[in-house]
């Protein structure tokens, strides 16, 4: 794995602590406010109840000590298995990109391939297809992006320790869109175990002229009578997966932190959470299970889980509908009986009996 700072633009790697002070301070203020509210709750308790709570807090402390040991052992276990995964990922890379051929494939021409001028190697569009199968990532990939993402050869990730977090690496073959062979995205976390994102840093993409996918060029005709007869060119930012490498940033140090209102902080926080969601999806779902996403099996599994929950809800709704129908039948029969019997209900054999609704665990 390449050195972190070597893959990052100098300006991004040199961000100062003040650059992210606005958001971090806002988060700390919220945490302090919540902590203050908890202290207020304790002060309202009676002495006996407070004493019981203090014993509970001691139990919580013992739990936290065990949890710390668990997290340490989990980190060691993850590191152990990450090393065991690596040879499998390497083999996957070689097959996907046609570096090696799998056993059992001969050089005999297939009828459909007889007229083909070039031999198809590896698994074309492997990573593009895998990412488009995921509901989170497919929303980020535009039709224009697909041309560039077809050159994606591999995606890797690794943990970083100083500061804590993780880094994604996207390896590209030589392509007509940008010069970079590797695009990286690094997430710095305030707390690695209970993830609170501090900031994210992406590679500056070196686009070839006219090939930038994150911007679109608009040309407007000059107004009548204008001295300038040339069309007016305007560049606007547009939707693209490659915006992922230009993550939302906290205000610069020359901004006045006091001017950041709650709405701006909340909007920025939401953007950062969305950005982290994309990164963690690639890390936790796409990289380890890429083949299942490529074939669609992983997406089908997710769909079945969702539909399974919906079926339970539909069953409950059906039960409710049946109960409502039964109630309506009761009312109709009761009305007929009252008309016939002078106000006394007459229950025949065909009268539906009332039953409690069935409950199904979801």
Automatic annotation (TrEMBL):
SUPFAM superfamilies: NAP-like (SSF143113). Its main location: cytoplasm. It comes from the Eukaryota. The keyword Nucleus applies. Keywords: Chaperone, Cytoplasm, Nucleus. Pfam families: NAP (PF00956). GO terms for biological process: double-strand break repair via homologous recombination; nucleosome assembly. Belongs to the nucleosome assembly protein (NAP) family. PANTHER family: TESTIS-SPECIFIC Y-ENCODED PROTEIN (PTHR11875). GO terms for cellular component: cytoplasm; nucleus. Residues 299-362 are annotated as: Disordered. It is found in: Cytoplasm; Nucleus. This is Nucleosome assembly protein. The keyword Nucleus applies. InterPro entries: NAP-like_sf (IPR037231), NAP_family (IPR002164). GO terms for molecular function: histone binding. Residues 302-334 have a biased composition (Acidic residues).
């Amino acid at each position: 794995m390449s050195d972190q700072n070597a893959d990052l633009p100098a300006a991004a790697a040199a961000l100062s602590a003040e650059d992210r002070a606005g958001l971090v301070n806002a988060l700390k203020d919220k945490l302090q406010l919540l902590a203050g509210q908890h202290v207020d709750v304790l002060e309202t308790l009676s002495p006996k109840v407070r004493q019981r709570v203090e014993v509970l807090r001691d139990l919580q402390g013992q739990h936290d000590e065990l949890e710390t040991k668990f997290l340490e052992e989990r980190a060691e276990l993850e590191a152990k298995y990450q090393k065991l995964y690596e040879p499998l990922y390497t083999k996957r890379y070689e097959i996907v990109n046609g570096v090696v051929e799998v056993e059992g494939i001969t050089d005999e021409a297939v009828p459909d391939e007889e007229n083909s001028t070039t031999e198809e190697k590896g698994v074309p569009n492997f990573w593009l297809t895998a990412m488009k199968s995921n509901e989170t990532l497919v929303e980020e990939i535009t039709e224009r992006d697909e041309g560039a993402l077809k050159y994606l050869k591999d995606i890797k990730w690794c943990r970083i320790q100083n500061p804590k977090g993780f880094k994604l690496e996207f390896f590209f073959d030589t392509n007509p869109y940008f010069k970079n062979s590797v695009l990286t995205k690094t997430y710095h976390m305030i707390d690695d175990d209970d993830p609170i994102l501090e900031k994210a840093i992406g590679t500056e993409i070196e686009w070839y002229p006219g090939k930038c996918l994150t911007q679109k060029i608009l040309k407007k005709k000059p107004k009548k009578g204008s001295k300038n007869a040339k069309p007016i060119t305007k560049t606007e930012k547009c939707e693209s997966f490659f915006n992922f490498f230009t993550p939302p940033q906290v205000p610069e140090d020359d901004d006045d932190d006091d001017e950041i209102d709650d709405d701006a902080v909340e909007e920025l926080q939401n953007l950062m959470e969305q950005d982290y969601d994309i990164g963690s999806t690639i890390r936790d779902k796409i990289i380890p299970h890429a083949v299942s996403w490529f074939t669609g099996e992983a997406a089908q599994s997710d769909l079945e889980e969702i539909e399974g929950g919906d079926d339970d809800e539909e069953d409950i709704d059906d039960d409710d509908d049946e109960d409502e129908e039964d109630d309506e039948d009761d009312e109709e029969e009761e009305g007929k009986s009252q008309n016939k019997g002078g106000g006394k209900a007459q229950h025949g054999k065909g009268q539906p009996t009332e039953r409690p609704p069935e409950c199904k665990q979801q």
